Amino acid sequence: MPAADNKALVIAFYEQAFNDHQPEEAAAAHLGETYTQHNPEAQDSPQAFVGYVHWLRGQFPELRLDIKRAVAEGDLVVTHSNLHLKPGDRGMAVADFWRLADGKIVEHWDVIQEVPEKSANDNTMF
Questions:
Q1: ∠ CA(101), CA(75), CA(85), 5° rounding?
Q2: CB 68 within 8 Å of CB 82
């Protein structure tokens, strides 16, 4: 698939799973038969992804993911997002790295940092 299609697929998947509260549908439509997870808090497999989203939403029912940008090259897509666990919080800056094969997401890495109250500069994290 072209990089632009991969980017659109990842954004649709992420929005559907987290903001539309449809992790089962998102996993069925967009994850490969195998899904390798590099986040140490999550297990491999599409079923494990669905369980993780349900667990996270159980902890934080008003969770919201705001995708700020996405970049794609070949079979890799990178998203930069602000993950809000509760309305009004500063949230967490999240960089996700997705690898696709045959039009499906098959591998995921992420880096997560809390958005601090104070910054040494006037720039935002987004």
A1: 90
A2: yes
At 33 the three-state DSSP class reads: strand
Chain segment 14-24, per-residue pLDDT in tens: 999 999 999 99
**pTM of the predicted protein model:** 0.93
Residue at 121: amino acid letter: N
115-122, Cβ contacts within 8 angstroms, sequence gap of 24 or more: 115/82, 115/90, 115/91, 116/90, 117/90
| Rounded distance between C-alpha atoms, residue 38 and residue 95, angstroms | 13
78 contact partners, CB below 8 Å, separation of at least 6:
70, 71, 72, 95, 96, 97, 98
Class of 3-114 per CATH? alpha beta
Cα separation, 103 vs 113, whole angstroms: 29
